[in-house]
Amino acid sequence: MKQSYKKPALIISFSLSSLLLVLLTILLVASLIVYTEVSFNDSASFSLWRWNSTNNDTLKEALLITNTSTSPSSLQEPFLITNEATPPASLPLVASTATKIIKRCNKLEKIEAGLAIARAAIKQASRNKTTLEDPDYVPKGAIYQNAYAFHRSYLEMERLFKIYVYEEGDQPMFHNGPCKSIYSSEGRFIHQMEIEKGRFRTENPDNAHVYFLPFSVVMMVQYLYKPDSHSTQSIGRTIIDYVDIIGSKHPYWNRSLGADHFMLSCHDWGPSVSSYVPKLFDKSIRVLCNANTSEGFNPAKDASFPEIHLKTGDITGLIGGPSASRRPVLAFFAGRLHGHIRYLLLEQWKNIKDQDMQVYETLPEGVSYNEMLKKSRFCLCPSGYEVASPRVVEAIYAECVPVLISDHYIPPFSDVLNWKSFSVQIPVKDIPNIKKILSNISQSQYGSFGWPLLGETLAFLKPHTSNSLGSFLQHHCSRYGKVFKSHLFFSPAIISCDQELNYFILLNEDKLFQCSYPSSIHGVLGKSSMLVVVGETHKRLRSLALSLVTSTKSSPDYLNDIESIAIQILASWKGKNTVTFCEEARKFTFNVIVKQVLGLTPEDPQTTKILEDFLAFMKGLISFPLYIPGTPYARAVQARTRISTTVKALVEERRRRSIVENKKGDFLEILLSVNNLSEDEKVSFVLDALLGGYETTSLLMAIAVQCLGQSPIALEQLKKEHHNIRILKKKDEYLNWEDYKKMEFTQNVINEALRCGNIVKFVHRKAIKDVRFKEYLIPSGWKVLPVFSAVHLDQSLHDNALQFHPWRWETQGQTAKKFTPFGGGPRFCPGSELAKVETAFFLYHLVLNFRWKAEEPDQSMAYPYVEFPRGLPLKLDPIISEPSF
Ligand code: HEM
């Protein structure tokens, strides 16, 4: 048996529409009816139009047959359309041919020719996989047997389909039905047909494709059945009389022997009472909730219809529920002991004390049935006395996966809907194994996986301003809460926008979760990169990185190097009216990191070479992982090889020099002296530092500059702070750690820029065990993405979260949970302080030497890597009075 668990999103699209669409969906069923080949020959069998039919008969054939001189209305002559139409290559051409033929036909022939064209169009859509633009609705997804055929069929239905409703018969048993009971779908349909006379209903029976017999079995049971008599004869006789009247007053029943007529019933007795009229049972289309093949339901001509229990008449409060990870119960059922299947189910599971399996004959006091549906991942829908159960729709409403347990049941709209994609079907004999079967449904079967591999990745990566959540997160959070599942980066994924869970994920690195970047990143960074390695290797590399950071920080040149590079960049602005700030900031951070790590100055030829290769490397890092020559990815892999060659040469040169020259004690020298690193690891180390220290820090500077430009008060306060430091310094005296400590407001500005700018929107992790956190269940092997931006922009954690307001950091504690721009736990960014120092020192000289304003509007965008599309062009105005250099 194939089972699958469909993500709520898909189910929602079905459930939300389901009630309102009862009529439309029925009409859709009726559209199947339209494409039923109508036989006027008593002995000819029906063949329902099948979208996947391999019958290759031509439209021409169909039209020719339709165009025979044999009049169907003579009825005595058999009139048989035996073949389905094959869609023509060019539909308009066929349509015009058809029009010519139709002109010579009588009304019925016209109808048949119209149907043949519709059939051809549906078949063509199915074969060519074409979808017509439709402003209202274009179906897609695995829930459809064939979305293309369905869409075309639906459009054809809207264009063409007409139902004639017989007016004979009086209320309450005709033209009327219950709308607030377990049989409400019967009443709803009848009422819709009575009210909605215009759209699909025709007053002219000659124009109809199908004829509706508007009797209600439920009402007949209410008014005609003698309680406890166990006899349905009175109902049967009424139906016989009714069909006789229809046959004698109108030509249509006898013309087709009932084949183009349909009845609808949700009552359990629908099938049996229809047997009182053999033609109704054998030939007519019976739309039944009790779609039981062992009771004569014939899927080739009958249609299965959902049973919907509308207690109050509407569905308020019934729709929706949390995502599967927040549903603690595996399977739920509550219902009376009706029929042998329920007996087996209750006997097996009712008295078992198992939190996973909540099976009740009567729900315990105070437990809400609807809440239980929303708490459960699977909702058991066993047959009662008959096969249909309103639980199927109730489960779908609550976004719980229905588990159909029945014999001989054809689920609703099976011609259109692929039930295997959103339900589980368990044979009655497997009732004892329900728990095992449901527990074994692989976690990867959860979720609306959209495209088979990419899932929702493209929607997730859709660009948005970096100080916003983006439409994907906004929609999903409001729909499913702060933690939800999806399929991203080729894997089922849990996305967390919850500060507690994010923090928990970061802290439990290597215990419950592990860093897991996409393979594209592995290919470019190399297998020894710190972002790629895990476990012991990561620990070893990381402790080395931290000791390197500590020792370079304590070097006397550390701050001076940073400051002198800042001064160099700003000095190059002299005489310029405009600059593209992002480019300038990148120059600055690149020169700083190359100096810090490799000891190179901007003038060294290797610096330019590394920069060129590094840019290609960066582009590939975010590209798609296809190693095809010429793609950014391939160029990045090649660039990495070149950088690695350059770095290896530098290492060699330094090794030779350090033998004869004085030791510098810088990053490279320490790296050289380490014995427990392979050559590849040393190169990766340098690359990690270049990568980490370049783009991220330059972006932080750009975001701070842009926000300050829009906040004159903050800029003024920042300037004052730096001015106060400046006046205490001698000419050409460098900034020191004491000065840095005095830059308190600068720190607030930097924090706020980090919070608003969200340079690292999320990080990649995977669960290495099944993890339960609060009410969430994170399956082992799933990708887990803690989204930092969602926490940074959460209004409940940061007042006026969307506003740049550096003063919030004067009072707001920087709790690690709600502010994680540098990650957290064992992978907390080792370069965080360098990034802040660089930004602070650059801002110091910038605000003391220049005024600026945006030359054209620009905004940091999350692609999701953050970028200013125009590079943040600034108009400059030098401040002559108080230059700092
Ligand atoms: C504004 C600037 C920066 C931001 C926003 C930033 C952000 C981050 C974040 C969020 C992580 C954690 C990644 C994860 O958990 O998967 C990280 C890790 C890292 N960062 Fe930074 N970073 C910045 C600057 C730097 C600098 C300047 C360097 C180098 C000098 C650097 C080197 C690294 C390295 C090597 C790691 C990997 C740490 C590990 O896996 O243990 N970063 N950074």
UniProtKB/TrEMBL annotation:
- Cofactor(s) recorded in Swiss-Prot or TrEMBL: heme
| A GO CC annotation given for this chain | membrane
Instruction: Quote the subcellular location field of this record.
Output: Membrane
Keyword line: Heme, Iron, Membrane, Metal-binding, Transmembrane, Transmembrane helix
The UniProt entry, under InterPro entries, shows: Cyt_P450, Cyt_P450_CS, Cyt_P450_E_grp-I, Cyt_P450_sf, Exostosin_GT47
Q: Does the keyword Heme apply?
A: yes
Q: Where does heme bind?
A: 829
User: What SUPFAM superfamilies is this protein classified in?
Assistant: Cytochrome P450
Identify the metabolic or biological route this protein is part of. Answer: Steroid biosynthesis; Hormone biosynthesis; Plant hormone biosynthesis; brassinosteroid biosynthesis
Q: Which GO terms describe its molecular function?
A: heme binding; iron ion binding; monooxygenase activity; oxidoreductase activity, acting on paired donors, with incorporation or reduction of molecular oxygen
Reactions this protein catalyses: campesterol + reduced [NADPH--hemoprotein reductase] + O2 = (22S)-22-hydroxycampesterol + oxidized [NADPH--hemoprotein reductase] + H2O + H(+)
- Please name the CDD domains in this protein's record: CYP90-like (cd11043)
Q: Which GO terms describe its biological process?
A: brassinosteroid biosynthetic process; brassinosteroid homeostasis; secondary metabolite biosynthetic process; sterol metabolic process
Q: Which residues form the Exostosin GT47 domain?
A: 158-440
Q: What is this protein called?
A: Cytochrome P450 724B1
Query: Origin organism of this chain?
Result: Thalictrum thalictroides
Where is the organism placed in the taxonomic lineage, from the top?
Answer: Eukaryota, Viridiplantae, Streptophyta, Embryophyta, Tracheophyta
